[in-house]
Amino acid sequence: MTNHKVFSAKDCESFIETKSFHKLCSVFKTLKTSKGHFVLVLATPGTGKSANIYEALSLLDLNIHDAHLFIDTDSRPGDVFRIFWNILKDDMGVKTKEEAYKKASEYDLVLFADSFLDSEYIDYNKMGLGLWTEENGPRTFPLYFKVLYEYLKHYRELKKINIVAQTSWIIKFRGVRYNILTDLNFISKILVFLLKRLFQVVRISYTKEEMIKIIRNHSIEISNEKIEECIEKYGNRPRFIFNALDKE
């Protein structure tokens, strides 16, 4: 079965442009000429955050640093913070945090996408921040306090850097994964409202017409009835639909 996870523009074959994609491109264009932006890309898991991000970056020819993270399930928050900085400094060819901040400012943006959040798809013996957070629950909170302290301590340096992050806050209920930022109606709306006060937020979503185009582009022979069935069962989440169609 094809793995529909996206780690680069090369994985976005036959991409269908949507209203959300054009909005994302509009935001990304500003990163070429100005600094100090922090862009959060939100969507329900399986919607295609990475596909939209990498396609937009490729189209706009932005110079990026794609951050990576490989950790173990039993890594403690302090370990994760240390591993992140060690990997970042190695990737950038520097020795100190100060040099890393300076190097990061030379890029149009620093990206935190699947290679950072879902790196278990790259190395099955490790995991990314998303799965680590999901499996460790409240024990991960100290990491975010460390990140907040780092942000406040290096606020001036960060004003010279653009950051783009795809963001999910996943919980499990009766075996089903939910993104608190998109799937819980009123609660999600409140949280996104608060995030918009602090960051530039772009939500990836599709109309029914856009979903039909996306599915037909993946499987030309599919019937209208099958398309309706897929959308009814999986919602507007192309990756889940593609995986199901591949199994059939």
Return residue spans where pLDDT drops below 50 for at least 5 consecutive residues: none
Helix content: 40-55%
Q: For the residues shown, what is the average pLDDT?
A: 88
Percent of residues in beta strands: 5-15%
Strands, total number: 7
Task: Tell me what you see in this structure.
The protein folds into two domains: 16-205, Rossmann fold; 207-248. The chain has twelve helices and seven strands. The protein has helices at 19-29, 49-60, 77-92, 97-104, 114-117, 129-136, 141-153, 155-158, 186-198, 208-218, 224-234, 238-247, and strands at 38-42, 64-66, 109-112, 163-167, 170-173, 176-179, 200-203. A five-stranded parallel β-sheet has the order 2-3-4-1-7, sandwiched between helices.
Could you outline the blueprint of secondary structure elements for this entry?
Blueprint: H1 19-29, E1 38-42, H2 49-60, E2 64-66, H3 77-92, H4 97-104, E3 109-112, H5 114-117, H6 129-136, H7 141-153, H8 155-158, E4 163-167, E5 170-173, E6 176-179, H9 186-198, E7 200-203, H10 208-218, H11 224-234, H12 238-247
Parallel strand pairs: 1-4, 1-7, 2-3, 3-4
Antiparallel strand pairs: 5-6
